[in-house]
Amino acid sequence: MTADVHSDPTASDPTASDSTVSDATASGDGGVRQMIADAQAILGIELGSTRIKACLIGPDFAPIAIGSHEWQSELVNGRWTYSLDAVWSGLRACYADLLTSVEQRYGVRPTGYRAIGVSAMMHGYLAFDAAGELLVPFRTWRNTSTGPAAAELTDMLGVNVPLRWSIAHLYQAVLDGEPHVPEIATLTTLAGYVHWRLTGRSVLGVGDASGMFPIDPQTGGFDASLLAKVDRLIADRVPSATVTDLLPQVLPVGQEAGALTVEGARLLDPTGTLRPGIPFCPPEGDAGTGMVATNSVAPRTGNVSVGTSVFAMVVLEKPLAAVHSEVDVVATPAGDPVAMVHCNNGATELAAWAGVFGRFAAATGTPTDPDAVYAALLTEALAGEPDGGGMLAYNYLSGEPIVGLADGRPLFARTPDSRLTLANLMRTVVYSVFATLSLGMAVLAEEGVRVDTLVAHGGLFRTPGAAQQLLATAMGAPVAVAGVAGEGGAWGIALLAAYLHAAPAQGLTDFLAREVFRDGSRSVAEPEQRDVDGFAAFLDRFRRGLPLQRAAAEVLALAPGEENR
């Protein structure tokens, strides 16, 4: 669930960007070089669904250098996972790429930083025993096998507990009688795990914690009354510990969350160049860092993140009146309630189509840069008919809880009288990225939730205007894009690390508004009524066609062995 996506065999990535380095810092002048040498730069690292990214920022909060490493989840024994070996080899590769970028640009190799922050995709299940050994392979947010647990917890707690939340994974393991359950000593998220190994502290920021278990907005920690209910529910089956014992400590934004240990420094940089002792901010989830990166932490602000998943976050003015399966309530890094509409499937299928057209260009003897492929296809989408020419597409590579699908199959369908053109094809494919999100956002509209402007982020929005305009069409609301839209969460967690030195003198909202986003520069796309009406027609077709998805999942079952690919 992060704002990056990359799918083989394409070399294109609609939500990754390594190029957003400010003009002020790109020159490699002596001041920046000295600042890096003096260990005053700030490092943010985010483990996204398809890319691990590191972002180095300076005193003006603009990116100085970027490092990255591509990786992919695996479907093993029916569960989406990443191995811990892949976590650490990927982190080391990402960090090494950052160091190479810094040395090439500024002629200096960092040995330390003013502060570090770690972020990662939220939710999921990482369970460890008392010796710190992983008990079962990491179960990511993408898994949808927790339906019975999520339904029972939702009914009992009176809040929506989505399938991807950590507590749903834990309770499902309890219901299934999995043998590892009595051995669990620690339960955490991916960001929490990496932070734990680097600093020795098992803690989480409020935003990431809110994807494990409901947060009490009054205390900023896990809701004690709801924890007590779950403890009573599982007491007979997990007699060795309470849920409170298993969960990490929740820390407020701006509080130091430990320092880099000698072991942690070697894990990140095996060359031994990186010095220990660097302070860390609380680890955060990609939803929280996306809110920070788009300055969407105050009531009536919201953002949309587009990557392997696509989700919207809207900071609430007041509690929701009812429990909705399409919406879960999480928190900003400062602990304010947020309505989250999360769709398991985002732009990965769009990336596959871009790969097809990129390969076609190469096969004709005209190899084309992946960014240019996306620019051409997204521009064509803008030229398509408002409803996509009567065609239908689904981007469901995995199950989609918002529409009640346990499994997904990407589909493209059309009637004989539909108009198959490149423009209509691409508009239909892009619409499919935003369609499920639109269904969830309609629930918030019915609740009376208001948002002044949605801010989009992810490299998909690097093509000026195109994806932004189509998202505004799908949302029926203005959509803004800032100049650092492609940097996303790695920049956001770097800002939270920088906030260590501003708190508690000013709140996070003031820090972002007055220090980071004070120039307010961003472009805004307004929806056009003709396109909004066309998208409504597409969305009606999308709803009516959902039985095709259920039939496809039954007919196009995975062949034996395919689930382990």
Automatic annotation (TrEMBL):
InterPro entries in UniProt: ATPase_NBD (IPR043129), FGGY_C (IPR018485), FGGY_Carb_Kinase (IPR050406), FGGY_N (IPR018484)
One annotated GO molecular function: kinase activity
Annotated segments matching region Disordered: 1-27
Protein keywords: Carbohydrate metabolism, Kinase, Transferase, Xylose metabolism
Sequence ranges assigned to domain Carbohydrate kinase FGGY C-terminal in this UniProt record: 303-499
Every Carbohydrate kinase FGGY N-terminal domain range: 42-267
Regions of compositional bias (Low complexity) in chain numbering: 8-27
Family listed: Belongs to the FGGY kinase family.
PANTHER family named among the record's database cross-references: SUGAR KINASE, XYLULOSE KINASE
The protein, known as: FGGY-family carbohydrate kinase
